[in-house]
Amino acid sequence: MTSLMIGLVLGGTYALAALGLTMQYGVARIMNLAYGEFVISAAFATFVLFSSINLNPLLAMFIVAPAAFSISYFVYAILMAPLVKRSKKKGNLENDSILITFGLLFLVQGILLVLFGADFASYNYLNIPVNVFGITIAANRLIAFGLAMILGLSLYCLVAYSQWGITLRAVATKPENARLVGINVDRVAQIAFAIGGMLAALAGVVISMFQTFTATSGVVFTMKALIVVIMGGVGNFMGALISGLILGLAEATVSTYVDPGLTLASTYLIFLVLLLWRPQGLFGKGVVK
Amino acid sequence: MNDKRHLLKKLARLAMTSAVALTFSGVVSTAVLASEKSVKIGYAVSKTGQNSAGAGITTAPNYVLWVEDINAAGGLQLPDGSRLPIEIIEYDDRSSSEEVVRAIERLATQDKVDFILPPWGTGFNLAIAPLMDRFGYPQLAVTAVTDKAPEFAERWKKSFWVLGGGGDYSESLADVLAEANKSGKINNKIAVISVADGFGIDLIKSARPAFKKHGFDVVYDKTYPLGTSDFNAMIAEAKASGADSFVAFSYPPGTFALTKQSQIASFNPKVLYLGVGVGFPVYPKIAEGKMEGVMSLGGVDVNSAAFTDYAKRHMEVTGNPPDYWASSVTYASLQMLQQAIERVGLNRDAVSKELSSGEFDTILGKVKLEDNQLRKLWWTGQWKNGNFVAVAPATREGAVSPVIPKPAWQE
Amino acid sequence: MITGAKVSVAIIAFGLLALLPFFLEAYGLGLMIGMLSYVALATAWSMFSGPTHYISLATVAFYGVGAYTVAVLNEGISFPVILLIAVLIGLVLSLAVGVATLRLAGVYFVIFSFGLAELVRQLITWYEVNVTGTLGRYIFLPLEPQDIYWLLLGAATLTLIIGWLVRRSRIGLALRVIGDDEVIAAHIGINLTRTKLLLFALSASLITLVGAIQAPRWVYIEPSIVFNPTVSFLTVIMALLGGPHRLFGPLFGVVPLFLLFEWLSANFPNHYSIILGALFIAIVFVLPNGVLEFLDRFRLRRAKT
User: Fold this and answer.
1) Domain coordinates of chain C in residue numbers?
2) How many domains does chain B have?
3) pLDDT at position B25, please?
4) How far apart are CA C52 and CA C227, in angstroms?
5) Between the N and C ends of chain A, which has fewer C-beta atoms within 10 Å?
6) Torsion C72-C74-C76-C80 (CA) sign
């Protein structure tokens, strides 16, 4: 029971960190290797706001998230749009986006290193115990879990049932056809990328409340997020949510009942086995060829 | 769209030109320095990659501080009393073994520096040891904790190991715990976790027999992979194990997470010993000021004027306070190098000989190496009244008696 | 198409490179060692990933396994035998992995291969900690840098020769068809799985060999050192930059990038990341199809005028 709770809360964090990437890769088709750097930048921004003007991180969200949206919007316009345009003829957007976001990763990391140095950054906010069904959990972790659930479910519903969601899905599955029915594919992709950046920032704000981070720890988030996204099926928010929870649960149960030394091995194993069983991820519909 | 493309081209060109301009300015400044007579000292540390946090806290700032101190005094003093300024050549090893090896080759054969300062980390110090030996450079390996130090000092005669081995730390801890057990402050059960990495394994391997020797029963003993961020499951197990002492041979991110998560879980064992990171300046902030009683490796004698003075200058020059374990040892090793040069000059063989036989006056007090190893170190420390003070070896002057049981997290 | 002139140029180049250690000092040699290892890695990587468009991030899994094999066996067995064993282990491992994974496509394969590398690292760590009770192994082999250089030169040359042979063989042709269209490939009677598997295993074995050759240079080995994911990423980036569809494409990606990294980390140790990132982005815009194609087009343009 304890490990179930621990696992769910941990899984919520993983899911939260992955939502933005689902959006960016699933809809905008940008394989963003600098994703974790967006998460960490938001964490640093929150850290600065908190330690300089003592701004409550939950309020900081309302500054950081819109900022991340507009930054991502411009990043797409400057870096990605020309690549998308170029790739229409040759269809090698995937390679190009890997290369360019790899460059972006170094750029952002370098800037963070210059600004904040290599030291660990940490502050404490809502690091207070909360009793849930007799099990003590940190309040800030519960917030992460709750935010993951709310964002994940609402995005899922939005994509599944709203008009805008249909547009998104059209762009995600068949961009050529979407263009035929009068959808401005580039614009939708740009907004999707920006929303993805905003989700990454939200994750960064929340994670910074309980996890120590450094300028170079972004890669860890990128990789975790990629695994969650791929496991859930690209572009599927429900899939990301559930696979995040599965990984968290696996980690907690293995740690308690098997051996803490095998937690990471077990998450990769589950990921690999699941992919072999369903090559398109849990909820993937064979969209991405 | 065409406009955008144009803008992009412009930006690219701007980036290129500024890069070129930067290089030239770099070339010019080194050329100016080289024309003067100076002592060239080189090093490679991890400025990027997975090791950058450790190197950026303990190693790099001390190099900066030392050079600043020396050059402010007019330079390195030579036996004839003259002084030469230090010229630094630094490389980024990008946290890769291959890069650090090549950087040392470059420093030795291309830049022909007079002395090479060591990189950060046990693995990297070992990777460069054969090279330093072949090129004839003394190597004052600081951030390398290894029980094989005596063997290495034998293999590479010019290598010096100044931070002890895993066994030193774990045996000292076992002594401290045994003392507390004898006086009835804690029971004889210990729960211990360790990080699956050279450092953690070195410590746990020597800790098991040491605990046993003192009659302790290790009731929970697990190893977790590097990169673990959630310790709640392990904390729950340790809590349920009935042990009064909880020991974690952990690395910084893990140490921090353990601290926060123990607080949440109201896990307050009578002895809480965590690994690397407890002595970092950022630790009080992570523990929200509730770090009283937490134990770890290292520690300092806060009543030592030399240390407080050093900590003040470290803060002034680098903008951060030193850590409470390896920082002062790093600086002391540089002072040893400095004094050896002062006595015998720039000849590397003579400096190596002086390092292994001479006595030096450092911020750690008077030190003398034994078989190329520094043995006069603090092995166990504890947070007490806002300082991370040394508690063992208890016989050494400056040691403070440990507070056991540890006070509750509140306050 | 191969002319006698080209063969003799290749032989002369090889001969000159083989003589290099007699003229270079340690740093120059170290530079060549680093460069050659990436030439071998990127060429081996492209052998499989170029024609199939499967971007593999498992490079470091095999590279690390090679290095670890040396660390485990380095006492008592002669080095050539260790290398042979390493290659065999790489072969078996890659066949096992290949059978399971090659039916994945696109980004699923990319991340899968990354997960694989991490899984191998975690399992080795766990095994070392719990079964052998150590972590971190020492390699004290009497190998000088020039020995490693010659071995790497051999490995790189071998990789290029195999790459060349593959391109001329039926398999190479088959792979190109697969890369263009898997459906057509299946229709014209190509055994997809077997062809891909063969190439994957060949490429992975060569990568394992490179890891094994380089290991003695580091003296001390532990999983976080030899399974550093950066190796996988750099290999991909260098190969993609050079152009993975051509035999010498990766070579043209490795040399400039490697030198660029070296120059940046030496001259701007504190701003390395920023400049590297900016240059990288610029490169993607300026050289969309890799260095080699850029050179070709440049030559063509000059020929026209």
Assistant:
1) 4-229
2) 2
3) 41
4) 25
5) C
6) positive
In a domain, B273, yes or no: yes
Domain span at residue B200 reads 166-303+378-392
Highest mean pLDDT, choosing among A155-159, B269-273, C20-24: B269-273
DSSP H or E segment with residue B77: strand B76-77
Range list of β-strands (E), C34-172: 137-138
Three-state DSSP at B41 gives strand
What is the pLDDT at residue C83? 93
How many CB pairs below 8 A link A and C? Answer: 124
Whether A75 and A28 have beta carbons less than 8 Å apart is answered as no
Distance from CA of A108 to the nearest CA of B (A): 12
| C244 contacts: CB under 8 Å, gap ≥ 6 | C45, C46, C49, C50, C250, C290
Of B52, B204, B30, the closest CA to residue B124 belongs to B52
* Beta carbons of C243 and C249 less than 8 angstroms apart: yes
What Rg do the C-alpha atoms of chain C give, in angstroms? 20
The CA-based diameter of chain C, rounded to the nearest angstrom, is: 69
Residue B404 in domain: no
φ, ψ at B93 (rounded to 5°)? -85, 0
* DSSP 8-class letter at B139: E
Sign of the alpha-carbon torsion through C66, C71, C76, C80:
positive
Question: For residue B34, is it within any domain?
Answer: no
pLDDT of residue C2: 57
> Which residues partner with B271 through β-bridges?
B245
Q: Tell me the C-alpha distance between A144 and B246, whole Å.
A: 28
Amino acid letter at B153? Answer: A
Strand positions, DSSP E, C169-225: 220-221
> Is the Cα torsion angle A103, C230, C93, C202 positive or negative in sign?
positive
Q: Which element (helix H / strand E) includes B123? A: helix B122-135
Q: Which residues contact B395 (CB under 8 A, 6 or more apart)?
A: none
C218 closest CB neighbour out of B110, B127, B223: B127
Task: Provide the β-strand partners of residue B366.
Answer: B361
Q: In angstroms, rounded to a whole number, what is the distance separating the alpha carbons of residues B294 and C189? A: 69
**Residue A180 — pLDDT band, cuts 50, 70, 90?**
confident
pLDDT at A285 over 80: no
Q: Which among B92, B108, B202 has the least Cβ separation from residue C272?
A: B92
Q: Count Cβ atoms below 10 Å from residue A260 Cβ, excluding itself.
A: 22
Give the phi and the psi of residue B39 in degrees, each rounded to 5: -100, 125
Residue B392 is predicted with a pLDDT of 83
Task: Output the pLDDT for position B249.
Answer: 94
3-state secondary structure A91-140: CCHHHHHHHHHHHHHHHHHHHHHHHHCCCCECCCCCCCEEEECCEEEEHH
Identify whether the C-beta of residue A94 lies closer than 8 Å to the C-beta of residue A227. Answer: no
Flag whether residue C111 sits within 8 Å of chain A, measured between CB atoms.
Answer: yes
Of C134, C218, C286, the CB nearest to B101: C218
Identify the band that residue C3 occupies on the pLDDT scale cut at 50, 70 and 90: low
Integer-rounded Cα Rg, in Å, for chain A is: 19
CB distance A118–B260 less than 8 Å?
no
**With the C-alpha atoms ordered C93, C96, C98, C102, is the resulting torsion angle positive or negative?**
negative
**Model pLDDT for residues C187-228, shown as the tens digit of each residue:** 776 677 788 888 899 999 999 999 999 999 888 888 888 888
- Plot region of B49 (φ>0 → left; ψ -120 to 50 → alpha; else → beta): left
Low-confidence winner among A170-184, B109-123, B289-303 (lowest mean pLDDT): A170-184
User: At the topology level of CATH, where does A2-277 sit?
Assistant: ABC transporter involved in vitamin B12 uptake, BtuC (1.10.3470)
Interchain contact, B12 vs C29, CB within 8 Å: no
C-alpha span between B36 and B239 (Å, rounded) = 64
